[in-house]
Amino acid sequence: MNENQVEIYIRSSPLGDVGIHWRNISKPEQPVEEPVVLKQRIINRDDGQKVTINSLIKDTKPSLILARYGNKVLLQLTGLDATEARSQEMGRRISESVLWVVDDSPEAESQLKKLAACALLSFCEKESTFLTIIRSSIDFDGLNGFKVDAEKIEQLYSNVDKHFNPLLSEVSSSDISPSVWSTPETIDIQSPEFKVLVKQISQTSLSNLSKTEEPVVVVAQFKKEDNRQQLVYKGNVWKPEKKIPVPADSKRKVQVPPPPDPLPPKKNRLAVPLIILLIAILAIIYVNYQFPATPTPKPKPTPKSTPTPTPTPTPTPTPTPTPTPTPTPTPTPTPTTTPTPTPTPTPTP
């Protein structure tokens, strides 16, 4: 397989305030770049949420993830201790991670499974050759960065048999079991079962889990229990998305539309008369207030027909004003003046 198809990422801490971050060391400039495969949410939780594979581990503890999904196969090692010199310069423990991502193929899967076996056996020995190569290849680069000897990390992938064969020479191939991916267990690393498990991981195909394109995510994490190192092996933790079961009664209601249909019409039957009544009341109020002139003349003609006889005697009040002018002519001195001129014309004939 062409080594150029392998992408390698390192996660570490610089001296400055930038903080821990990923770098793609497969590129010459080793840019800050978070692996795309780690952003994909493929793990289905019981609550229906989807999470990334990194949510399954604590990156500060020695852990391993071997996975295949999205036409990629990958191996991630986390919780690796940096060199003592770098930790002292930083003033605290530095936890580092390494990620190999390869296009899915039988050869790539075989190489990464061997790397996983080397990592599991090397976690037991702090000064193992495998971990020493990783530690020595990472160093500070100024305050806000770090640099990696990419060639050393690439050689771990290409020369994995050199590190792998001596470690597993004690385990026979007759112990291989396809059920290794589906059998979680907690094993003491000093027990013979531990090396048997490691050998099974290195030689059992991931394709035995499923004939479909379903993801495979194998998780293992180390822990200390009563001063003993143990491996908590979870196997393949990926599972299909859980579908919420629908009760049988609800299924029948969905299949037969008549039962839910009568409920809305009952409401409509009650609502329609109320709406009609409300509209009628509003219409009456509107008419009374909008056209007040038309109803008022109708009651006026009816009282006019009855009082018509009563207004006819109205001439009776007229004689009452006639006596009032009569007192004014009582001063009759005016007629006395008028007779005096009249006798003068008579003597002329």
UniProtKB/TrEMBL annotation:
Regions of compositional bias (Basic and acidic residues) in chain numbering: 242-252
Biased composition (Pro residues): 256-265
Keyword tags: Membrane, Plasmid, Transmembrane, Transmembrane helix
Region (Disordered), start-end ranges: 242-267, 294-349
Sequence intervals crossing the membrane: 270-289
InterPro entries: SelW_related
Protein name as catalogued: Uncharacterized protein
Organism lineage: Bacteria, Bacillati, Cyanobacteriota, Cyanophyceae, Nostocales
